[in-house]
């Protein structure tokens, strides 16, 4: 599709817009004539032909197509297309059979049957057998219905009691294995002390247990403080990271950029900015841009 005034094709930068008066499609540059429209009860941008027609109030108002529209139809060969349509209609009339036509219901039934084709004659047993062969399991496994778990008929109090009981059993198992592990460690330590030639001191070990617990609590506090300080340092490092460098090239043709659009903040050369310019989207103003001199690209 192309503009009906300048005949330039529509693209991503040259958007298609309709004239609110006549309805034909134009680009934003050709649709720049403002006038009051009674059907909208407001001012709107219309094409040049509608603007000229509004200047002649005495003449009857008729919506005429643009000249580019007629040129396009002439290129397509409107007369030749109409002649081909008439020939095809004449052939259809000549080939029409004189026999009694089928009723609408029978015709629809036959057409649906042709679309569906022949109905499959495979039974359910054959389908289950093929599925079992693909899975590599007996047919009884495929035919068997899934076994659902029985519903829970316990009350809320019974469920809570069962959970507490399960938790107590789990803690008992954990303490049992912990005691066994501590006993194995103590026996290994005693053997090591005997090999070294010194007597084991179980009492001293027992006395040092509370101190070890306090040391462990202090170690946990210090580790938490270290983790918090590390997170703070990472956050400050992320804040100090400079933004990525902007390449001083045009967004469309990759030539050296000379201006920045104030609407979309993209870089363009002069020629591409004129194609990109659009009053409705706010991309009608720019500021000059110069590439940094201390960088090489």
Automatic annotation (TrEMBL):
The keyword Cytoplasm does not apply. Keywords: Metal-binding, Zinc, Zinc-finger. CDD domains: FYVE_like_SF. Residues 193-223 are annotated as: Disordered. GO terms for molecular function: phosphatidylinositol-3-phosphate binding; zinc ion binding. GO terms for cellular component: centrosome; cleavage furrow; midbody. The keyword Metal-binding applies. Residues 1-55 form the FYVE-type domain. Pfam families: ANCHR-like_BBOX (PF22586), FYVE (PF01363). GO terms for biological process: abscission; mitotic cytokinesis checkpoint signaling. This is SFRICE_000181. The lineage of its organism: Eukaryota, Metazoa, Ecdysozoa, Arthropoda, Hexapoda.
